[in-house]
Amino acid sequence: MFRQNEEHRQQSFFSGEHLLPDKLRARLRNSWAETFYEELFCRIDETLFAPLFSDEASRPNSPVNVLMGAEILKSGFGWSDEELYDQVCFDLQVRHALGLRDLGAEVFVLRTLYYFRQRVREYAWESGVNLIQKVFEQVTDSQLETVKIATGWQRMDSTQVLSNLVKMTRLQLLVSVLQKVHQGLPASMQAAWGERWQFYLEKRPHQVCHQVAAAEVEEHLLTIGEELSAVETELAQGAPKSEALRLVRRVLDEQYTREPGKLTLRPESEVPSGSLQSPHDPDATYRVKGGATYCGGYVVNVSETADPENPVQLITDLQVEPNRADDAHLLEQSLDNQVGRGIEVKQVTTDGGYTGPQGQAACDAHHVRLRATRMRGGYPSSEQWGYDQYGWEQDDDGTPIGVTCPEGHQAELIPGRAEGCYLARFDLERCGTCEFFRGLCRVKEGKRVPPTLYMQRRSIDSARRRQQLCPEDGPIRTLVESTVRSLKRGFPGSKLPVRGLVRARMVLYPAALMVNLRRLHHHFEKKGEEASQGITTFLSLLKVALLRHSSPIFRRFSMLLTADCARQLPSAAK
Q1: Which residues contact residue 224 at a Cβ distance below 8 angstroms, ignoring those fewer than 6 apart?
Q2: CA distance 164 to 12
Q3: 167 in Cβ contact with 233 (< 8 Å)
Q4: What is the C-alpha to C-alpha distance for residues 204 and 343, in angstroms, rounded to an integer?
């Protein structure tokens, strides 16, 4: 039965914090734990998790905000489950952050946390709704409103993270698949196939591979393919909807070429990048980006505010997808999601990976200006002017209707014979006297026609996007790279401690919440210091003014007033 946790709002007489000296109690109140409690823990809407629990009268659930807060702390600090549990039990700051003030009160056991994760994961599979993501959005929206953060100008960047997988050879992968398939076979089939696959099942995949000579690897790869093809036939009849059958068919399609009566191993170069990297994480994919290889991972797209007038910048949105997802697609997802949440976005600063037709179309759909610092693709040849050096005129529908060369010569754009092709006829007399004609200029000289410029629609669109680049935004965009590093702070080597797309999202959204929390705490600390300095200055001026008065009463009053106010400075500043 679902029940909200409101006990943390009631101060207990037995709170361990009351045993602390005044200085330590004040230090605790000014630490990150208080900011976590006020700005994050108290903002968690527990009713989001009500569908996970029974509506019938039964034993109430463990406090959802405590479990959710523990997940955020785990991702933010990079703790293991055992380390997290020790911190919750014995660390006074962590207990304060989670509203656990009474040292005699019982805390959840790790098994409760495991059940909570399992329910969230299963709910995401069944409904397509990740409740951890909903908490991130709900808390972040509340923080943005409270701190008055302008969201109109944002910056965006993506990064690669790895699933908690062992990098495997092709043979290791197929042996692992065979073992996974055997585990998923119906009980009536396991014994027979287990005896048939005994060589591949008796040890762990890497140990099996160590027994295979290099010259025999390809033979074993073909053998496993034939065995998978054989078990596919039996599964199709006995368990047509099983996970084992789906896994078998996926691997056969990705790793082999199947023809009637013949099975051939695909060359490694023909295996698609979306192929299975491990049977333990079907969502993780393969990608080469920037010369680096990411085998079995995900891409994380981070959006954060970038308005220079903001007192603090916060992460507004996060996307986690298989690492083959294109940046432009992630930009589209982010804008759709933020607009759906009521967040106003007017311009986005990105690198060149977000440019292109899809990224521009996503921005146009929401009337957002794309301020890219670079552009996807190579640079134009230096032997001739690039199309971006020409001026392009369009009608209201975006159809090109005119062109102006760098020397100011204008011509009308005429649709060519082929679809998407255009041409422009320039004046022969003007072109003939131009020093760049037959050189840097792309206008070609014709025998029977005036000088003509030939181009395609995609080249025109690309040129217009290049003209709209904002290289001056480079310093602004670079700052988001620091945010990316902060997000992966708890994951050494960019490797997540979990497997699967749903679980990856369940640890990355809490990590983003912790990044925002640290920034808010730093912001409040800075405001407190400024307030303390202002109070100190005021008291100094007041003391001088009172001491100048000739009456001893005013002098005595000034000394008592300033001494008492000095003791109250920390709480007054906060």
Answers
A1: 174, 175, 177, 178, 200
A2: 42
A3: no
A4: 50
DSSP bridge partners of 404: 391, 410
Task: DSSP for 11-25, please give it.
Answer: PPTTBGGGGS-HHHH
Residue keyed to tokens 């050096």? 389
Query: What is the per-residue pLDDT for 568?
Result: 52
Q: Provide the pLDDT confidence category of residue 320 given band limits of 50, 70 and 90.
A: very high
Query: 304 with 480: CB under 8 angstroms?
Result: yes
| Residues 403-431, mean pLDDT to the nearest whole number | 90
Amino acid occupying residue 63 = P
Question: Residue type at 24?
Answer: L
Interval 524-537: pLDDT, tens = 998 877 776 666 67
pLDDT of 535 reads 67
Q: Coil, helix or strand for 265?
A: strand
The Cα–Cα gap between 558 and 545 comes to: 9
214 DSSP assignment: G
CATH no. of 287-375+471-512: 3.30.420
Of residues 388, 389, 452, 454, the one with CA closest to residue 421:
454
Q: Which of helix, strand or coil describes residue 203?
A: coil
Amino acid (1-letter code) at residue 292: A
Separation between Cα atoms, residue 45 and residue 472, nearest integer Å:
41
The beta strands (E) that lie in 398-481 are given as: 400-404, 410-415, 421-425, 452-456
Q: How crowded is the C-beta side of 332, counted as CA atoms within 13 Å? A: 14
CA–CA distance, 523 with 46 (Å, rounded to integer): 27
Query: What's the token pair of residue 448?
Result: 């029977």
Q: How far apart are CA 16 and CA 101, in angstroms?
A: 6
Hey, what are 83's tokens?
Answer: 């380390």
Q: Which helix (H) or strand (E) holds 141?
A: helix 131-146
Angle of helix 32-39 relative to helix 22-29, nearest 10 degrees? 50
- pLDDT band for 270, please (50, 70, 90 cuts): very high
3-state secondary structure of 384: coil
Give residue 572's pLDDT.
45
Distances (CA, A) of 129 to 133, 214, 318, 498, 502: 8, 47, 15, 19, 10
What is the pLDDT averaged over residues 467-486? 93
Rounded CA-CA distance 546/190 in Å is 93
Which of 15-29, 125-139, 207-221 shows the lowest per-residue confidence on average (mean pLDDT)? 15-29
Q: What are the angstrom distances between the C-alpha of 332 and each of 320, 359, 464, 537? A: 13, 7, 20, 51
- For tokens 């393919």, the residue is 225
Tokens found for residue 333: 């997802």
